[in-house]
Specification:
Order of helices and strands: HHEHHHEEEHEHEH
Strand content: 5-15%
Largest sheet: 4 strands, antiparallel
Bound molecules: 3-iodo-tyrosine
Number of strands: 6
Oligomer: single chain
Distance between the termini: 30 Å
CATH topology: NADH Oxidase
Shape: globular
CATH architecture: 3-Layer(aba) Sandwich
Radius of gyration: 21 Å
Number of helices: 8
CATH superfamily: NADH Oxidase
Strand order of the largest sheet: 1-2-6-5
Helix content: 25-40%
Number of domains: 1
């Protein structure tokens, strides 16, 4: 970009993009390698009660927080819960909501859709997994003066960052579950988050249990998930 183009605007500052250009063969190899890595990710509901090595969650959250976001607001907070007492409080509150959901809120159609997953209201993994990462969406920001600041595309931004987080944790060799106890309001109360932060996802993280089983699911083939013009 010509340096004169923005010279009258004042505020913005640009630096050269750091970018490694790859040869086609290397590009193909990397694309396949990443696909194979990410395709081996499965939702894990049975964890080992074994701590995660120091620094791993920090780097995975740094990776998540590198996601693109509306107006670069990075409208997220990742709350990492390892304290057994807080995990227990979250389990009890989640199970109370989930019990009500499974017993009274699910439609017959929804119940049928969940049948292959074998889930029910019991959520022991919320206590067994060594860490729970609760992703909060900042529906609005708060500036230095305590004034509300509009955030943009927060649903999309936090969704993308959560995808980065799941990919980073998987690539680090950890199992994850994208858990959405519904409604999730109790997480703001238990974790004492401010009013602008809305619980978005609860991600138990840890080593999968040695005897962990997962549903026998197939992924849709490329021609069912893409159209090419
Ligand atoms: N939140 C419930 C129910 C549930 C809903 C969907 I959509 C799933 O893909 C899986 C579960 C639970 O976590 O059990």
């Amino acid at each position: 970009m010509s340096s004169t183009v923005n010279s009258t605007e004042g505020e913005e500052r640009f630096v050269p993009l750091q970018f490694d250009s790859l040869e086609p063969a290397e590009m193909s190899r990397r694309a396949k390698e990443f696909y194979e890595t990410i395709d081996s990710r499965r939702s894990v509901r049975f964890f080992e009660d074994k701590p995660i090595p120091e620094g791993v969650l920090e780097d995975c959250i740094r990776a998540a927080s590198s996601a693109p976001s509306g107006a670069h607001r990075q409208p997220w907070t990742f709350a990492v819960v390892r304290d057994p007492a807080i995990k227990k409080e979250i389990r009890l509150a989640a199970e109370a909501e989930e019990r009500e959901t499974y017993e009274n809120r699910l439609t017959d159609e929804w119940r049928e859709a969940l049948r292959p997953l074998g889930t029910d209201w019991h959520k022991p993994f919320l206590e067994i997994a060594p860490a729970l990462i609760v992703v909060f969406r900042k529906a609005w920001g708060v500036d230095e003066n305590g004034e509300r600041q509009t955030n943009y595309y927060t649903q999309e931004s936090v969704g993308i960052a959560s995808g980065f987080l799941l990919a980073a944790l998987h690539s680090a060799g950890l199992g994850t579950l994208t858990h959405t106890p519904s409604p999730m309001g109790f997480l703001s109360r238990v974790l004492e988050r401010p009013e602008n932060e809305k619980a978005y996802l609860l991600i138990p993280v840890g080593y999968p249990a040695a005897d962990c089983e997962v549903p026998d699911l197939q992924r849709k083939p490329l021609d069912e998930v893409s159209v090419w013009y």
